[in-house]
Amino acid sequence: MKAAAIDLGTNAFRCLIRDIDSNNDTEMKFRHVVGLGKFLDKNNRLNLPNKYYVALDNIFNIIHQNYVKKIYAVGTSVFRDSINKNEILLDFKKRYHQKLNIISPGIEAELTSLGVNSLFVNPESDKIIVDIGGGSTEIIFMSQQKIINFYSLDLGVIRLYKKFNEINIFSFEKIKQIKDFVKKIIQESNISLNKIVKYQIVFNSGTSTTLAAISKNLKNYDSKIINQANLSTTETYRMLNMLANKTAKQRLLLNGIEKGREEVIVYGIIILTTIMEYFNKLQFLVSDKGILEGIFEKYIEI
Residue 284 forms beta bridges with which residues? Predict the structure, then answer.
């Protein structure tokens, strides 16, 4: 039997289809960068754009073409923030005949950790998992495969884009302004290491996978190459400077940048590097696995 997990994020919509009865490690994974958080107005009303329906229609067409029998869909930060979420849920149910589950930051952290942990040969190792989203950033502390603490920060690439309103060339002063704002949010969160001493930092998000794709000069995205890619802060700062000095259109010409990511990638890298500075780390791992794989483990493959 085939099953599908759907993750509707503030910036990107993702889908994972698997045959849960097969021993073959075959799956289909795809995404659409929608930038839905841009359509959340100052009153927190979410005005659904046409691209929302185009992306979902495409996802459900592929699901039906693959004769998927079981579907579990989640919505994250942008749906949590919207005052008209009930209208959106009813519309989703009526149009796609499925329930959209708006998950809490805690469930989002749990699903992310389950997905990322499935990537490791030694999943019991201590790690800090960071998921930089469009509307929020989850920082998850794991030890012996258990979450011992997590923080959900009001930081995301769409949230920063709406505040600072820059998509093209970022001046040194603009980068510093954004970085100071991010640093303030992180510091005010009073993040404690909670007795974790020796740990790895793993970033699971479009920001980190894009950085890995640029670093590897990938014309075509390949999760096998992306997963467990090891990047340094030195190389990351080099990519930040390079991307900040290009227009959005120029960024899109680079190998590794997907359509829709070119406008917000600089914000994501500023969040990532500021978190790395906070934890005083020089290397980080990249994971393409996260919420989708977590949905299978928690809700589908049981």
Answer: 231
Residue 97 CB neighbour total at 10 angstroms = 9
CB count, 10 Å around CB of 154? 12
162: three-class secondary structure by DSSP: helix
The boundaries of the domain holding residue 174 are: 121-286
Same domain, 148 and 247: yes
Chain-centroid distance of CA 282 in Å reads 21
How far CA 106 is from CA of 111, 152, 256, in Å, comes to: 9, 8, 31
- List, in sequence order, every beta strand (DSSP E) within the chain: 2-8, 12-19, 27-33, 70-75, 100-102, 127-132, 137-143, 146-153, 200-203, 230-232, 283-286
Contact 278, 227 (CB under 8 A): no
pLDDT tens digit string along 118-169?
Answer: 777 566 678 899 999 999 999 999 887 888 889 999 999 999 999 999 999 9
Cβ burial, residue 109 (10 Å; 0-12/13-18/19+): buried
| Residues β-bridged to residue 138 | 131, 152
pTM score = 0.91
What tokens does 262 get?
Answer: 């070119």
CATH code where residue 202 lies:
3.30.420.150
> Which DSSP state fits 258?
P
The answer to whether 209 touches 289, Cβ cutoff 8 Å, is: no
Q: What is the pLDDT of residue 24?
A: 58
70-75, strands of its sheet edge to edge: 27-33, 12-19, 2-8, 70-75, 100-102
Which is it for strands 200-203 and 283-286: parallel, antiparallel or unpaired? parallel
